[in-house]
């Protein structure tokens, strides 16, 4: 986009509106065209100002952010960034908003740090402006039923990376997983304030057990482990022949912590060919080199296609690098994973890795 991204800020707090305006005006590629205190006020300003991106407070009087988002996605689909408090309710509502079509969620700063409050919001606004937005109704379709899968004797490890648009994508993929799914580890770019709520929601919606990964937690079939946001990278490592999750404290990689590249590189090193790598919607290129390392190690790899991606950045970078064996639309990703897992589960003993089972953990 050659002209500046136009933004409308919607928040019932005059302090929050002022701080966001100051932060966004630091970026010459962003133009704040207005601010609104309520959803009703914002509705009229959207019609008049036609902003490229909307920042929307989760908790507001009269009509909350979730209700307003549903109306926006039904009547005038546009990129929306949800701005939420650190409360459990705020996090849960923000995650639901991402499923309904919001592009990103941003956690309101706590207190007044020395650094400029709302730093990081500029990058989200620029990313959101390039998102592919699809309208949705209030009564969204239910999750797809679990894909029927042949029982697996020795299921491979599945590693998935996602960023912008990943909440919706992962909800669809894992919603099609059977309860006895291949062991799965996921890095999703997401603020620390929201990852716990995201895992809890997926656990309620999906057949497998979904949890936030803990350090040296065994990786088991029927379980999905999600990288916690913020302080650590997630790796898959082998300890005494058993695959485990490892939380690795280090600097951000490709601007992210956790990083998809760090996860994929660890799978390439510790699992090799008995693994499946999947890269979903997201901005920029995190995960591309790691997925290439997985493919070079003999793993099978899938990428989300352009048409079904909210942002075709990470999948495109991986595809252009030769890391993606096959591109699929989102609604075929789960089936593709399970078909490949069924093929790999029948591999010869020399190609198999030890996945944690009740017997190996005893």
Automatic annotation (TrEMBL):
Annotated catalytic residues: 163, 189, 286
Principal EC category: hydrolase
Domain CheB-type methylesterase: 151-338
GO molecular function (one): phosphorelay response regulator activity
Job description of the protein: Involved in chemotaxis. Part of a chemotaxis signal transduction system that modulates chemotaxis in response to various stimuli. Catalyzes the demethylation of specific methylglutamate residues introduced into the chemoreceptors (methyl-accepting chemotaxis proteins or MCP) by CheR. Also mediates the irreversible deamidation of specific glutamine residues to glutamic acid.
HAMAP family: CheB_chemtxs (MF_00099)
Protein name, per record: Protein-glutamate methylesterase/protein-glutamine glutaminase
Lineage: Bacteria, Pseudomonadati, Pseudomonadota, Alphaproteobacteria, Acetobacterales
Gene (UniProt): cheB
């Amino acid at each position: 986009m050659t002209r500046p991204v136009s933004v409308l800020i919607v928040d019932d707090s005059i302090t929050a509106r002022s701080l966001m305006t100051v932060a966004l005006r630091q970026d010459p590629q962003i133009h704040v065209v207005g601010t609104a205190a309520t959803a009703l006020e914002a509705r009229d300003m959207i019609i008049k100002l036609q902003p490229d991106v909307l920042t929307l407070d989760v908790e507001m009087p009269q009509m909350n952010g979730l209700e307003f988002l549903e109306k926006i996605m039904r009547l005038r689909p546009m990129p929306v960034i949800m701005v939420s408090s650190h409360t459990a309710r705020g996090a849960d509502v923000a995650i639901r908003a991402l499923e309904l079509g919001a592009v990103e969620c941003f956690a309101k700063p706590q207190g007044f740090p020395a650094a400029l409050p709302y730093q990081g919001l500029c990058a989200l606004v620029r990313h959101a402006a390039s998102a592919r937005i699809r309208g949705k109704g209030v009564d969204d379709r239910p999750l797809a039923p679990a894909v029927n899968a042949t029982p697996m004797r020795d299921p491979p490890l599945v590693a998935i990376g996602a960023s912008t648009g990943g909440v919706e994508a992962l909800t669809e993929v894992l919603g099609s997983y059977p309860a006895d799914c291949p062991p799965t580890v996921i890095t999703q770019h997401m603020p620390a304030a929201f990852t716990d709520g995201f895992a809890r929601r997926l656990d309620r919606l999906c057949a497998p057990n979904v949890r936030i990964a803990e350090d040296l937690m065994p990786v088991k079939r029927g379980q999905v482990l999600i990288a916690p946001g913020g302080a650590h990278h997630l790796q898959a490592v082998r300890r005494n022949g058993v695959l485990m999750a490892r939380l690795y404290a280090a600097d951000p990689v490709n601007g992210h912590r956790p990083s998809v590249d760090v996860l994929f590189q660890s799978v390439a090193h510790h699992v090799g060919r008995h693994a499946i790598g999947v890269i979903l919607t997201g901005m920029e290129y995190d995960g591309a080199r790691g997925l290439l390392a997985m493919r070079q190690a003999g793993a099978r790899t899938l990428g989300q296609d352009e048409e079904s991606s909210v942002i075709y950045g990470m999948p495109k970078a991986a595809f252009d690098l030769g890391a993606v064996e096959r591109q699929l639309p989102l609604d075929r990703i789960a089936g593709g994973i399970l078909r490949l897992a069924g093929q790999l589960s029948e591999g010869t003993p020399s190609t198999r890795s030890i996945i944690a089972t009740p017997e190996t953990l005893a």
